[in-house]
Every structure is written in structure tokens, then in C-alpha cells.
Amino acid sequence: MSIQINNVSKKFGSFQALEDVSLHIQSGELVALLGPSGSGKTSLLRVIAGLETSDVGEILFDGQSMIDRHPKERNVGFVFQHYALFRHMTVFDNVAYGLKVRPRKTRPSKLEIKNKVMELLRLVKLENFSDRYPTQLSGGQRQRVALARALAVEPKVLLLDEPFGALDAKVRKELRRWLRKLHDDFHITSIFVTHDQEEALDVADRIVVMNNGKIEQIGSPDDVYTNPKSPFVYDFLGNVNLFKGRLHNGKLLHGEFAIDVPDLQVHTEDQAVGYVRPHDIQIERTNVSGTVPVKVSHIHLLGPIVQVELRREDMDEFLEAELTKEQFTNLQLKVGDHVFIKPKQLKVFIPEDFSI
Amino acid sequence: MSSLTVNKKTRRIIPGFHLSLGYTMLYVSLLVLLPLSMIFIHTMSLSWAEFIDIVTAPRAVASYKVSFSTALAAGLLNVIFGTIIAWVLVRYSFPFKRIIDGLVDLPFALPTAVAGIALTSLYAPNGWIGQFFNFKIAFTPLGIIIALTFIGLPFVVRTVQPVLQNISAEVEEASASLGATRLQTFRKVIFPELAPAILTGFSLAFARALGEYGSVVFIAGNMPMKTEITPLIIMTKLEQYDYAGATAIAVVMLVTSFILLFSINLIQWLANRRFVH
Amino acid sequence: MEQSTFIQQVASEKNNAVTKSAALQEPRFVRYTLTFIALAFLAFFIVLPLVSIFSTAFQKGVGVYVAAITHPDAMAAIKLTLTVVAIAVPLNAIFGVMAAWALTKFNFKGKNLLLTIVDLPFAVSPVIAGLVFILLFGSQGLFGDWLFEHDIKIVFALPGIVLATVFVTLPFVARELIPLMQTQGTSEEEASISLGANGFKTFWYVTLPNIKWGLLYGLVLCNARAIGEFGAVSVVSGHIRGMTNTMPLHIEILYNEYQFAAAFAVASLMSVIAIITLIVKDIVAWKSKSA
């Protein structure tokens, strides 16, 4: 089922949770809503589910307006942030709930319900836990029960609110691979909310980056990571080094640092900030043109990658660079070394469209 | 692009808002607001001078003093002993603790009239306890204090107990590790955390004591000017079909308890604000 | 070695009161003094009154006791009390659930005001609680003339007693449920609705099982107060023996007529109810904690 969100706005009292949000999601896509807390991502998810009503705008499923539809008529499976499992029901009863509460006419028989529930429990690898209560399960198991419960009503759209938020790192990684696989097998249009950029980059087909109730950027994981459209997206997706300087004759100047920025030649003498990812910082032993002298102040070896903390010698600022183990060995870096750096890739934003 | 759709109706997803709120409003309007407003409407039939005359009559003023001072004394007794009981129940172990803990709620469960006659017979001059004292307890303000202490006891214990349970051992350990003595830890670490609960317990007990009737009438002796409590004045006036008089006194009591509740809420609000920042 | 330290640890956790260091524990004599004070206080204020009730009740023998509680007036009082409770408690239970639902599942203007109004009966003296119904339905009251014309009796009759009892016990169930439902939030209800359940099914299968122990706890408290209410009922009952006397009022009459043994006999009956209330309350509290 495709989802079309047109100009949706929502206010809670004086707080603007969503401001003129428009988004088109294709049938079978797996989309991540990514943003910090208060960015409106959960509100958008709840508006799609019908758990909140938008003040303005419309929601279309396959071209049909959902605005006046009750959540139960939207055919949506919702996985809640803290799972919202029915704590007095067993795992089996939790998963069976959506089928049991159907009006008699459309309710499957007891046997059908049982078969369906057991099939789902096998899918989430919990067939041996059907008699347990939610309190007797681990976080990851509860998460899977919540997912099975949402899938039991055969939704056309699956909405997940911070699905892995409350889990520890290892389980989280496992579950998100599993979610990806589940999605590839079933092809239900799925939207999940997360504040974890790694999770979004890892799982989603497309990422919608949100901030202050607005959409900052929509794109594939690769696209939003390598071509961020705003300083906010740059900063939110991964670490970044800032070069706060000014534009002059098509160059960004900052201390001894000067680099060509051909695409921004129009604005001269403007304040501007250059954004450089740590892995886009190239370290040289010799002073080539366009480099800045730095001193190595810290080296963190993190398995295959090496994080190098550098202190600029022309001003009191720190930079962070990431090298592969191989590059690191070739350079033979030691703390205290004087070296030179050069950004391989840099994106410049004029402070007017700043949001940080 | 289509023009903006404005959704005027904000639908509530969880059902029953209008039903439950409507029912609640109707219920409290008919059973609380309408009846209570009668007190104020009925007082309107009195002129201001008449009203003042009734509520400042010497017998009425004496009853305010009795009610207020005995309720205050009982409240303070409950603060002291209620806190000790809560402390002992939370911190120490001794035989039959669970049963004793349960018994603290007896004043909530026991009808006030039953408590009244039991306490009266115990503290009467020839009673089990009264006989050991060479002064009268029942039929004096002391008796009233005893009845009101009984009634108010669970309020302090039950508000202090959970707070005491929730004070983490780590805080006390931190205090001890920084060199504080046990008494210093209590005064500077534990007591400040208990204080709001003690205040709440006191105010609940005090408010209840001001209006209490059943347990007091038996033990008080009900001598005008000496051991007559304000609710009893209302009762007496009612028995003489002096509805206007009864209502006037009721206004005084109601206003007093509202002011009391309001100021307690205010104090608590101020205290909470201090902790938040 | 491993195991013995583990056992020691478990043992010390079990009675940490004993093994705590001096800095975390009061000196022994302080502990004993405080325990003594607490137990002595409870003995004088709770245990002795309770013992005296039963002792006085049986003072003149079992015969007098049985006669007192099987006397027609006593039986009438018991019947009246049970009738009042059977009407007032369910009314306030339904109200409590409705009010808690409205006040915890939704946000609206004036919520705090409504909460205060629900609590109001706790702040009102029982005598005033009775008085207000006299002012409404008494012969000089607002509806007095109309009621007289239509020959309907409210005060000095069963309806008045019920009304006064409802007023006094109104907040009990709501007060138990509101904080409970507040901490439970609305996500389970939302989950139920997103899975297709309607409002009634959501309440019945999801909300009710979650609040059942709190509801029962509130019911037990409400019930105890409804049985024992004295001041409010005393004002509206008219004290007609065998007709409008509830159990507490019957005790008062017997006591004032110096029939102490009989008064305490009926009182002992009510004390038994109170003790059962405490036990049920304890079980319910324990259940709700473990649930």
C-alpha cells in the first residue's frame, strides 16, 4: 500500500509538532523517520496510524483519504515504543488479541486463531514461550511479541515507534537485521521511527530526516549521508568537523586554511561554515598546498578503524580524522607528531540557513 | 497539489470521553456541588448581622477553640508517633510485624461510633486505662485528643511509610561514607525527604479531625464552652430545627477547611518546586 | 569458597538490619526504644480498644450477647445497613471507574478543578454532609414542599441515608483508581484499538484486568466507610428505631441507654467486619503488588 502525506500540520497546545509535512511512500518500501527527540517523527507516525489527528493536511493510503478513518479501519499494524504488551495476558493471548476482538461475523474460528498465532510465534522464534507473561520475557523477546501481535491482523502498513530503542546494543543489531529480512520476505509497507542514525542507515530503503516538525531531507541512506542538504543533516548523521570561516573569491578562508568552493562563488565576504566528515580528512606528512598544520594529540584504535584527534597549530581548535588501519600503518603516526591535513570533501553552508 | 484540508474535528482515539466526563460531571454536580451549594444559598436567608451574631456567639467561639486545639494536638501527636511507627515498621524487624502493620489501618476500617464507645470505656475514670490516672481523661479535652489521635493515626503512618521505603540505601551510605554520624544522616539526609510526607499526613489527619464527629461525641462529655466540638453545635442546632444557625456554623467550618486545604497544597507546591530546581 | 561467600551475601541481604555497619544503623538501645514506643502506642490506641470491645460484649455472658444481636431492632439495623451499602457502594464504584477514565485517559481544560471536586467530600465534616441533604430535601428545604405534595420521603428515610452515605464515600474508588491508571498510561488501550477492538472490548479485556486489584481495594475501603458512617447518617436518619437506624446508630442508642453489653455486642459484630476488611485489604494490596 502506498502512503501519501500532504501538507500535514499538528500542534499540541502551543508546540508545533508537525509543520507542513509532505511525503510519499511507495508500496513495499521500508522507510526510517530519523530525528532527535521532539523533531516530530513520532507525531507523524501516530498521525499516519490515526492515533492522533492532524490539524491540517491529508493522509492517503493508495489514494484513499484516511482522515476520517478510525485507526482500526486503517489496516495498520503499530508497534509501540515500550511495546504496550497487555501485561495480564500470555504471549499467545497477546498475539491472538487482534483476531479475538473481531466482530463475530469476521472472527476466525478458535482453531484458525490458534494456527495463525502459532505460525507467527514460529516466525518470531517464540513458539516455546506462548504461555509466558510479558514480564517473564527479555526486552528482545517482548519486542518480537509486539511485532507478532501487530502482524496478526495482517496489516497493509507496519508502523514501528523506536522499535529497538530500549534494547542493548547486541540484541538491537540482531533484531534490525531480522526486521530487514522480515520486510524483504513480506514486503509490507513499513515505517519506523528512530533517533539512531546507524540504525536508519543500516535498515531503511529511504531515510526521512526530521527536525523541529519539518522534513530536512528525504533520500536513500547513501544519499543523505554523502550529500546532506543542510547543516542539521550533516551534523545529525555522523561526526563532522567544522571550519567556521568566511568566503572570499570562491575560497573558504579560516586561519591558514583556504579551500576552493566553486559552487558558492556568488556570495563573497560572507560568513560560512565548511563541514568535513572525519574520514574525509586526509593526513599528509609534508606540506602540500591547501593543507593546514596540525599536531596529533590522541590516537584511538577501534579495531579496523583508527580515530585520530588533531590539534590545529594555527588556532585553538580540535579536529577528528578517521583512518583505516592500513593508512594508519603507512603514515606511522604517533602522538605529538606534526602533520598536515586536507579535506578530501567539504560542503559549505552559509549561516543564514543554520539550524544548529 | 490539492488545496489544504483543514481537519476541524480533533477526534480522540480512546473512546468514551463524552460519556465518562459527562457522567462524572453529572454525578458530582448532583451529589456534591448542588448539595454543598445549599449551605451557601441557605445562609443568604440570614442578614450579615444575624450571620455574625450566630458564628461569633460565645458558645460557638468556644467550640472553635476546642475543635481547633484538640485537632492540632492530635495532629502533632500523630506526627511524632506516626513517624516513629512508620520508621519502626520499615526499618526494624520484630515478631508479628505483618499483623501489626495491618492493624495500623484499623481506624480506617472501624466505624467511628465503635471506636468512640471503646475509647470512652477504656479511658473513663473506672476504665482499664483511666483507673491508673488520678485525673480525668474521658469527658475532658484530653479525651477528645485521644479519639482524634486514633482517627488520624493511619494518615501519617501511611504517607510516611512509602517515602521511607523509597529512600535508597545508597544515599545513606554516601552520607555515612562522608563521615556523618547516624543522627546527622537522619537530620540532614533522611528527614528532609520525609518532611513533605509528614506535612501531608499531618494535614490529612488535621482536616479529618476538625470535622470528626462519631468517635468524639461519646468521649467528649459535650459540655458547652468546655468540651463541645463545632460539629456537635451543628448537630444540636439541627435537633432544635435551627437550620439557619446550623448552616451558618457549617459555612465557617467549610471555609476553614477549604482555606486549610488550599494553603497545604500551596506549601506542597512550593516545596516541590524547590526540589525540581 | 565461592559458594560460601555467596551464601553469606544472601544471608546478609536477608537480614541486613543485623549486619549493617554502625554508621548505617542506630545503636541497639535506640532501636529497642523506638520499637517499644511504637508498639506501646499501638497497644494503647489500637489493640486495647479492640480487645475491650470483645471483652465488654461478652461481659454478661453469651446469652446476653446473642440476645443483643438477634433483637428485632438490631436485626432491622443490620438489614438497613446492608441495604444502604448495597446501593451506595456500586454507585460509587461505577462513578469511580467513569471518573478515573475521564481524568486519566484524556486531557481537557479544568481537569484539576474536577479532581478537586471529586476529593471535596473528604474535606467536608460528616455532619455537614448530612446537613446539606436536610437543606435540599427537608421540610424547610429546597424541594421540601414539592416532596410533601407528592408524598415522597427522602430525609428521615432510606433515600436520605443512602444519599448521605454516597456523599461521604464518593471519592474512595476514584481516589484509588486515578493514580493507578495515571501510571499505566494509555498505550495498552491504544494498542488494543489499533488492533481493531472497540471501546467496550478495550475496557473489558485490557483496562479492567489491569485495574481490578485497585478497584477491589477501593471497593473494600468504600464498603468499610459506608458500613460505619455515623455523623452524616445520624443527621438524616431521624433515629426511628427499627426503621431508620443503621448499625452505628443502633449502637449509639444502646450505649446512651446504658445497655453497654448490648451496645458492645453490636459493636463487636462491626469490629469483626472491620478486621475482615483489613485482611481482605492486605491480601488485595499484596496481590496487586505481585501482579
From TrEMBL, chain A:
UniProt domain ABC transporter: residue ranges: 3-237
Gene Ontology MF terms in the entry: ABC-type sulfate transporter activity; ATP binding; ATP hydrolysis activity
Keyword annotations: ATP-binding, Cell membrane, Membrane, Nucleotide-binding, Sulfate transport, Translocase, Transport
A cellular component term, taken from the record's GO annotations: ATP-binding cassette (ABC) transporter complex
Superkingdom assignment: Bacteria
Phosphoprotein is among the record's keywords: no
Family annotation (PROSITE patterns): ABC_TRANSPORTER_1, ABC_TRANSPORTER_2
NCBIfam families named among the record's database cross-references: 3a0106s01 (TIGR00968)
PANTHER family attached to this UniProt entry: SPERMIDINE/PUTRESCINE IMPORT ATP-BINDING PROTEIN POTA, SPERMIDINE_PUTRESCINE IMPORT ATP-BINDING PROTEIN POTA
Annotated protein name in UniProt: Sulfate ABC transporter
UniProtKB/TrEMBL annotation, chain B:
Subcellular compartments: Membrane
First-listed, main subcellular location of the protein, grouped into a coarse class: membrane
CDD domains assigned to the protein according to its UniProt record, in alphabetical order: TM_PBP2 (cd06261)
Coiled coil: none
Statement: the UniProt record of this protein carries the keyword Membrane: yes
Pfam families linked: BPD_transp_1
Chain segments annotated as transmembrane: 21-41, 68-90, 102-125, 137-157, 197-223, 243-267
InterPro entries noted in UniProt: CysT_permease, MetI-like, MetI-like_sf, Sulph_transpt2
Keyword field contains Nucleus: no
Top-level division of the source organism's lineage: Bacteria
One example GO MF annotation: ABC-type sulfate transporter activity
Keyword set, alphabetical order: Membrane, Sulfate transport, Transmembrane, Transmembrane helix, Transport
Function text: Part of the ABC transporter complex (TC 3.A.1.6.1) involved in sulfate/thiosulfate import. Part of the ABC transporter complex CysAWTP (TC 3.A.1.6.1) involved in sulfate/thiosulfate import. Probably responsible for the translocation of the substrate across the membrane.
Quaternary state and interactors: The complex is composed of two ATP-binding proteins (CysA), two transmembrane proteins (CysT and CysW) and a solute-binding protein (CysP).
Protein name: Sulfate transport system permease protein CysT
Biological source species: Lysinibacillus xylanilyticus
Lineage of the organism: Bacteria, Bacillati, Bacillota, Bacilli, Bacillales
From TrEMBL, chain C:
Localization: Cell inner membrane
Record-linked InterPro entries: CysW_permease, MetI-like, MetI-like_sf, Sulph_transpt2
Segments passing through the bilayer: 29-54, 74-101, 113-134, 154-174, 215-240, 260-280
MF annotations from Gene Ontology: ABC-type sulfate transporter activity
Xref: Pfam families: BPD_transp_1
Residues annotated as domain ABC transmembrane type-1: 78-285
GO cellular component entries: plasma membrane
Record note on quaternary structure: The complex is composed of two ATP-binding proteins (CysA), two transmembrane proteins (CysT and CysW) and a solute-binding protein (CysP).
NCBIfam families: 3a0106s02, permease_CysW
Protein name: Sulfate transport system permease protein CysW
